[in-house]
Amino acid sequence: MTDVVFLEKQGAVALLTINRPEKLNALNYRANDLILRYLDEIERDDALRAVIITGAGHRAFSAGGDIHEFTESIKLGPDIAVRDFCLRGQRMTGRLEAFPKPIIAAVNGLAYGGGCEITEAVHLAVASETALFAKPEINIGIPPTFGGTQRLPRLAGRKRALELLLTGDSFTAARAHELGLVNTVVSPGKVLDTAFGMAERILRHSPHAAARILSAVTRGLNTSIAEGLSIECEQFARMAATPDVHEGLNAWIERRMPQYGPSQGGNTISQL
Questions:
Q1: Catalytic residue among 8, 117, 178, 254
Q2: Does 120 qualify as catalytic in the annotation?
Q3: pLDDT tens sequence across 207-266
Q4: CA distance 34 to 22
Q5: Which three-class secondary structure state does DSSP give residue 13?
Q6: Residues 103-162: pLDDT tens digits?
Q7: Strands 110-112 and 132-134, sheet pairing
Q8: Measured between alpha carbons, how far is 197 from 104 in angstroms, rounded to an integer?
Q9: Catalytic entry in 43, 97, 120, 137
Q10: Is 163 one of the annotated active-site residues of the chain?
Q11: What count of Cα atoms within 13 Å lies in the side-chain half-sphere of residue 141?
């Protein structure tokens, strides 16, 4: 547990912790890369069916990109800065957004910049009532680089997002909830427990059905309604070919709880 990100497996839930509390869990390049590496590991492990991502300590979820590190990349020119900083962060948030297992952010403190962008990208989020959010990149003369100019307007609406992006002002967890950035706000000591409780409510159901829902929603958001409905039918057809459908239907008819194994209906939950 000495690296900048570590993975713990708690039953069917993977807990990813950004572990730089002395730097407010700033996302250096190694942290970005480790998140991607652990997500690959989690996807391959059929026993893991949900993910929670949080920050070490009590002060921050993540204060965003490591400014000292990416400043050195910017000094080397735009091409290197885009490759090493911007595209690296976008790969990470894109992977979180398209991940075929539910990901819940447990926002336990500051979620600035890249930390806010992780919250935007993941599927669900729980925030401490003392958490603070911000899109402060404009304060150092850059736009957001990990997807914040694209995802926040989709979540909050164009004008509300632009106010946050153009002022750099911080906003509370209650405001984040109002904007649709987080699902629920709880007292500081209940953030992880609430996130695990949310995961348990999801784990009652077929992991393959969850993957199909995540795929339909994530892909459909960026299409017309007609294209989205086609994606919905495609995901239903894929699900209808799995044993989970028969188990779910039979359980409903027999008035019992369905029993879904981690690999029922296939060895790997694929988003494609």
A1: 117
A2: no
A3: 999 999 999 999 999 899 999 999 999 999 999 989 999 899 999 999 998 988 754 333
A4: 18
A5: strand
A6: 999 999 999 999 999 999 999 999 999 999 999 999 999 999 999 999 999 999 999 999
A7: parallel
A8: 11
A9: 137
A10: no
A11: 3
